[in-house]
Amino acid sequence: MSKSKIIVENLSLFYGKHQALFDINMSIPENKVSAFIGPSGCGKSSFLRCLNRMNDLVRNASQKGRIILDEEDILGKNVDVVLLRARVGMVFQKPNPFPKSVYDNIAYGPRLHGLFFSKKELDEIVETSLQRAGLFEEVKDRLYSSALGLSGGQQQRLCIARAIAVNPEVILMDEPTSSLDPIATARVEELIDELKEQYTIALVTHNLQQAARVSQKVSFFHKGILVESGRTSHMFTNPTDKRTQDYLTGRL
Amino acid sequence: MTLAKKNVTLQKQLLKRHKRDRHFKWFGWMSIYIVLFLFTTLLTSILFQSWPIFWKQEVQISLPTTQISSFKVSTGEATSLLEKAFHYERKPGLKAKEVVSLNAWKIVAEEIDKRKRSKKKSVGRHTMWLPIQYTVSQAYRRGGESFIFDWLKKKEDEGRLRTTFNWTFFSNADSVFPETAGIFAAFMGTIFVLLVAFTIAFPIGVVVAIYMECFMRKDTKLTYFINVNINNLAAVPSIIFGLLGMAIFLNFFELPRSSGLVGGLTLSLMMMPIVIVSSRMALSQVPENLKEAALGLGASKTQAIFHHVVPGAMPGIITGTLLSLARMMGDTAPLIMVGMVVFLIKAPMTLDSPATVLPVQIYQWFQRPEPGFIEASSGAIVVLLLILLGVNSLALLIRRKFEKFSV
Ligand SMILES: Nc1ncnc2c1ncn2[C@@H]1O[C@H](COP(=O)(O)OP(=O)(O)O)[C@@H](O)[C@H]1O
Ligand SMILES: [Mg+2]
Asked: Are residue B66 and residue B194 in the same domain, yes or no?
């Protein structure tokens, strides 16, 4: 498989005394979609949130181990979290557009980081982000009306466009289609497939078909432990661990 | 249990349930009707009682031509002019001070001063409308025998007696005569007091709320202690805040007694906990995922809060503040404690001059034995209720308008 974008070494995560992740080791390949699957409560979201340090916000959450993004340990003391999150964007389970116009939603990140020098440049960023998220045609006439007026699927793609607008290297997605209908889901899946050309994508999903369809690498979590990890085509046909087999056949 | 038996039991159960539903519905409607009845009774009785104060009888008087000094008209000059005018009515025994308001000389003086200031050099013979004394006017309307009534009847036939809407009730300050008393001074006082209270309580209250809700750890003993105290303060009887205001602002800081400044400061103490509690409520209702979205894009915590959480809570914060302002507007006790019970023939123009507020004015008028002041008091109540209605509907409107925001 191709070059690794992120390498996780001996990562453990604690919420107070409760340990949510046990000694995780894995690599996330560049320009590929890596899927994380597992029964609910197994620590998929927790793991994903380690990758851009969203767990910093949870009081008394603590991590041990190393997460190396392009040769730098992002769990290090003097890592700038703001910069990290500009490099590692995130899309959440429930679409969460700001109660502002479509334009302002996309422009928020670039404005935050000062990524443009003129209004024209910002317009361009907004347009290309929307285009890459495959949303531009649908919203070009309502750029300045509220993003809350969009459908759920459109809102989720807007959130993806918003993440793209800061031009991240990695995009983390936590069950991005779990609140969408099948058609919107298919649309987002297509989008994920296209996006991997430019970005490294880490995708949490509880939908095995989805993992099979869009990912190149799958990691199976169980009770905070990374049970098995490998090429998607391989994992779904030849799981080695008993627990993975059970999960894939619906017995876990 | 057989199917038939089961159906019978179900039927019985269902009947009982429907009956209970009906009873509850009936009870609910009864309660609503009772509340509505009480409320309309209150409103109509106040409206009825206040009605006379909103309509004022005036008589048209011709003032004699005289030489008037070029300076401001003096009390003596105006009074004698008025008496002379009544003398010319050729009605033996008719005296100005028994018919028109005892404040009429002021109106005469003002009018003449006004005319002198305008181009006209000579103050010629001219006519003006003067308010009739409240008691005389009421008695005349009821009917009866008296040479004053005869004269008024004659005037009415000549078209020189009219009933107009009592605008001066809104433009005049207080007076010892009901026909010239008005709520303007109290209204200005209310504005001053609310302005001061708002300027202090709103920014401090909102900042405290933001800090407590968004930045402070919620699980410490200190936070718990502060929380309990603030909630407690929001429920403390207002008269105690009056005592506090008296102790702090009058005795310690020696600020001017009875002034709008002190009243406002006192109310700000009272308003702050209410603003804090309602603002915290509004802040806590902003969905957490907005904050996460911003953080995920690389906003700092402070940025996420000030870009998204605070604006999202603003409608709620403003609504809460408006409602607390409405409460402050109706509060009386603390302002009485800091001496805002004053008789004002002129509206206060500065924050440190003596002032009174609408509810205190209502209270003051209600205490006066002279006829007409109960009516004036009721009139002020009507005005106060209307203002409160306005403020509360504004708050409701803001809430409605932004309701769609809540995700
Ligand atoms: N903020 C938190 N504080 C404490 N425990 C948490 C927190 N978030 C998740 N957990 C715990 O960590 C475990 C993993 O949760 P999560 O990562 O959300 O699982 P998943 O996303 O796979 O369903 C669960 O046992 C959950 O209760
Ligand atoms: Mg999850």
From this structure: no
Q: In sequence order, which ranges of B104-146 are alpha helices (DSSP H)?
A: 104-117, 134-142
- As a whole number, the mean pLDDT across chain A is 92
Residue B172 inside a domain? The answer is no
CATH for A4-95+163-248 is 3.40.50.300
Structure tokens at B197: 């209270």
Residues of the domain holding B211: 184-403
Site to probe by mutation for ligand 1, drawn from A11, A14, A15, A205 as the one with most ligand atoms within 8 Å of Cβ, is A15
Dist CA A131 CA A118 (whole Å): 20
Residue B387's Cα: distance from chain center in Å? 6
Q: Give nearest CA residue, ligand 1 atom 21.
A: A45
Average pLDDT across chain B, whole number = 90
Q: Is A113 on the interface with B (CB under 8 A)?
A: yes
Three-state secondary-structure class, residue A36:
strand
B220 touches chain A (CB under 8 A): no
Sketch the domain layout of chain A as residue ranges. 4-95+163-248
Other CB atoms within a 10 A radius of the CB of residue B75 amount to 10
pTM value is 0.86
Into how many domains does chain B fold? 2
pLDDT per position as a tens digit, B144-185: 888 889 899 999 999 999 999 999 999 999 999 999 999 999
Distance A54 CA to ligand 1 centre (A): 13
Task: Write down the pLDDT at residue B91.
Answer: 78
Amino acid at A69: L
Residues from chain A that touch B307, judged by Cβ atoms under 8 A, are 108
Per the CB < 8 A criterion, the answer to whether B163 and B131 are in contact is no
Please tell me the distance between residue B21's alpha carbon and the centre of ligand 1 in angstroms. Answer: 43
Mean predicted confidence (pLDDT) in B87-104: 85
Q: Is residue B46 part of a domain?
A: no
* Residue that terminates a domain, selected from B164, B194, B227: B164
CB contact under 8 A, B298 and A90: no
Residue B31's φ and ψ, nearest 5 degrees, are -60, -45
Model confidence at B69, pLDDT cuts 50, 70, 90, reads: low
Contact across the interface for B298 and A148, Cβ inside 8 Å:
no
Same structural domain, B121 and B217: no
* Residue B245, SS3 per DSSP: helix
- With pLDDT > 70 as the criterion, what percentage of chain B qualifies? 95
Q: State whether B197 and B339 are in the same domain.
A: yes
Read off the pLDDT of residues B6-50 as tens digits, 9 standing for 90 and up.
888 899 999 999 999 999 999 999 999 999 999 999 999 999 999
- CATH number, domain containing residue B232: 1.10.3720.10
Q: Which helix (H) or strand (E) holds A173?
A: strand A170-174
Decide if pLDDT at B406 tops 50: no
Q: Is residue B155 part of a domain?
A: yes
